[in-house]
Amino acid sequence: MSAPELASSYAALILADDGVEVTADKLQSLIKAANVEVEPIWTSIFAQALAGKDIKDLLVNVSSGSGAAAPAAGGAAAAGGADAPAAEEKKEEEKEESDEDMGFGLFD
Protein backbone atom coordinates (compact mmCIF):
# COMPACT_ATOMS: atom_id res chain seq x y z
CA MET A 1 0.00 0.00 0.00
CA SER A 2 1.30 3.47 -0.82
CA ALA A 3 1.74 6.28 1.69
CA PRO A 4 -1.34 8.22 0.49
CA GLU A 5 -3.51 5.11 0.80
CA LEU A 6 -2.20 4.35 4.28
CA ALA A 7 -2.59 7.92 5.46
CA SER A 8 -6.16 8.08 4.14
CA SER A 9 -6.99 4.71 5.67
CA TYR A 10 -5.68 5.66 9.09
CA ALA A 11 -7.44 9.02 8.96
CA ALA A 12 -10.71 7.28 8.08
CA LEU A 13 -10.26 4.88 11.00
CA ILE A 14 -9.60 7.77 13.38
CA LEU A 15 -12.73 9.57 12.23
CA ALA A 16 -14.81 6.39 12.53
CA ASP A 17 -13.47 5.72 16.00
CA ASP A 18 -14.54 9.19 17.08
CA GLY A 19 -17.96 8.73 15.48
CA VAL A 20 -17.35 11.55 12.99
CA GLU A 21 -18.62 11.39 9.42
CA VAL A 22 -15.85 10.62 6.93
CA THR A 23 -15.51 13.46 4.42
CA ALA A 24 -12.66 14.47 2.13
CA ASP A 25 -12.11 17.71 4.07
CA LYS A 26 -11.90 15.95 7.43
CA LEU A 27 -9.56 13.31 6.05
CA GLN A 28 -7.33 15.99 4.56
CA SER A 29 -7.30 17.92 7.87
CA LEU A 30 -6.17 14.87 9.82
CA ILE A 31 -3.52 13.98 7.27
CA LYS A 32 -2.13 17.54 7.27
CA ALA A 33 -2.04 17.48 11.08
CA ALA A 34 0.16 14.39 10.82
CA ASN A 35 2.54 16.27 8.49
CA VAL A 36 1.91 13.89 5.61
CA GLU A 37 1.44 15.21 2.09
CA VAL A 38 -1.40 13.55 0.20
CA GLU A 39 -3.05 14.76 -2.97
CA PRO A 40 -6.70 15.69 -2.42
CA ILE A 41 -7.82 13.06 -4.94
CA TRP A 42 -6.96 10.31 -2.43
CA THR A 43 -9.10 11.77 0.33
CA SER A 44 -11.91 12.31 -2.14
CA ILE A 45 -11.75 8.69 -3.31
CA PHE A 46 -11.77 7.39 0.25
CA ALA A 47 -14.62 9.67 1.28
CA GLN A 48 -16.73 8.55 -1.67
CA ALA A 49 -15.95 4.87 -1.09
CA LEU A 50 -16.86 5.08 2.59
CA ALA A 51 -19.92 7.33 2.23
CA GLY A 52 -22.87 5.89 4.13
CA LYS A 53 -20.93 2.89 5.42
CA ASP A 54 -20.24 1.97 9.02
CA ILE A 55 -16.48 1.51 9.08
CA LYS A 56 -16.50 -0.25 12.43
CA ASP A 57 -19.04 -2.73 11.08
CA LEU A 58 -16.86 -3.32 8.02
CA LEU A 59 -13.89 -4.12 10.24
CA VAL A 60 -15.85 -6.47 12.47
CA ASN A 61 -17.40 -8.37 9.56
CA VAL A 62 -14.35 -8.72 7.35
CA SER A 63 -14.57 -12.51 7.18
CA SER A 64 -18.34 -12.87 7.27
CA GLY A 65 -18.50 -13.39 3.51
CA SER A 66 -17.42 -16.79 2.21
CA GLY A 67 -15.32 -17.68 5.25
CA ALA A 68 -18.22 -17.64 7.73
CA ALA A 69 -19.34 -21.19 6.95
CA ALA A 70 -15.86 -22.66 7.31
CA PRO A 71 -15.58 -22.31 11.10
CA ALA A 72 -19.05 -23.79 11.54
CA ALA A 73 -18.18 -26.79 9.39
CA GLY A 74 -14.81 -27.14 11.10
CA GLY A 75 -16.48 -27.02 14.50
CA ALA A 76 -18.86 -29.83 13.57
CA ALA A 77 -16.01 -31.95 12.27
CA ALA A 78 -13.90 -31.27 15.35
CA ALA A 79 -16.83 -32.23 17.56
CA GLY A 80 -16.82 -35.68 16.00
CA GLY A 81 -19.59 -35.08 13.47
CA ALA A 82 -20.16 -37.93 11.04
CA ASP A 83 -20.89 -35.53 8.19
CA ALA A 84 -17.23 -34.59 7.65
CA PRO A 85 -16.28 -37.77 5.69
CA ALA A 86 -19.44 -37.46 3.59
CA ALA A 87 -18.58 -33.86 2.74
CA GLU A 88 -15.08 -34.89 1.63
CA GLU A 89 -16.50 -37.65 -0.59
CA LYS A 90 -18.92 -35.16 -2.16
CA LYS A 91 -16.03 -32.78 -2.96
CA GLU A 92 -14.07 -35.62 -4.59
CA GLU A 93 -17.08 -36.58 -6.69
CA GLU A 94 -17.52 -32.98 -7.85
CA LYS A 95 -13.86 -32.84 -8.92
CA GLU A 96 -14.21 -36.05 -10.91
CA GLU A 97 -17.38 -34.83 -12.59
CA SER A 98 -15.76 -31.59 -13.65
CA ASP A 99 -13.13 -33.50 -15.66
CA GLU A 100 -15.81 -35.60 -17.34
CA ASP A 101 -17.85 -32.55 -18.26
CA MET A 102 -15.02 -31.20 -20.35
CA GLY A 103 -14.78 -34.41 -22.34
CA PHE A 104 -11.23 -35.24 -21.37
CA GLY A 105 -9.27 -36.20 -18.32
CA LEU A 106 -5.73 -35.75 -17.16
CA PHE A 107 -4.55 -39.18 -18.35
CA ASP A 108 -6.62 -39.53 -21.56
From TrEMBL:
GO cellular component: cytosolic large ribosomal subunit
Keywords: Ribonucleoprotein, Ribosomal protein
Protein name: Large ribosomal subunit protein P1
InterPro entries given in the database record: P1/P2_N_sf (IPR038716), Ribosomal_P1/P2 (IPR027534)
Gene3D superfamilies: 1.10.10.1410
Organism placement in taxonomy: Eukaryota, Fungi, Dikarya, Ascomycota, Pezizomycotina
Pfam families: Ribosomal_60s
A GO term for molecular function: protein kinase activator activity
Task performed by this protein: Plays an important role in the elongation step of protein synthesis.
Species of provenance: Hirsutella rhossiliensis
Compositionally biased spans, kind Low complexity: 65-85
Family recorded in the similarity comment: Belongs to the eukaryotic ribosomal protein P1/P2 family.
Swiss-Prot/TrEMBL GO biological process terms: cytoplasmic translation; translational elongation
Chain segments carrying region Disordered: 65-108
Subunit comment: P1 and P2 exist as dimers at the large ribosomal subunit.
